[in-house]
Amino acid sequence: MNLRAVLAIRFSSLVPPRHLVTDVGPVPPVPSSPPSDKWVTPDSIRVNAPRFYVVIRGRCCGVFASWGYVSPLVYQLPKDERFFFMVTDYETALEEYTSAKNDGEVRLIGRTSRDIAKYGPPHLCIM
Which superkingdom (predicted)? Predict the structure, then answer.
């Protein structure tokens, strides 16, 4: 077997067979910051953070420890629709969020098609 034949075989193993290539368009990007990586849960190391942000109505909902992450979740949403607040202890944050969720107050608002790439699909954006 000559070198050209060996290279052709090796190259063909890198290219997927034609029947596996679809015409559905580009693969969507993996979310850069899924909320599940930012949520503060009871077993999280972030339960000792100095403050917690509770997002009841926003692009993603839950208990977070970073204003830098929360700000885009509520930024430029109508003030009468968005609902979030800050508390200084985790127990209060979790209690308030759980109560709002049990009362049916937690919901996603203001989502755009770009939010899927940033935070993931809506069903994964509620803690």
Answer: Eukaryota
Q: Look up the pTM and report it.
A: 0.69
CB 108 within 8 A of CB 59: yes
Taking CA 41 as the corner, what is the angle to CA 36 and CA 45, rounded to the nearest 5 degrees?
A: 100
Q: Is 13 helix (H, G, I), strand (E, B) or coil?
A: helix
pLDDT digits (tens, 9 = 90+) for 12-65: 444 444 444 444 444 444 345 556 667 776 667 678 889 999 999 999 999 998
Counted domains in the chain: 1
| Structural domain that includes position 50 | 27-124
Give the domain CATH number at 90: 3.40.970.10
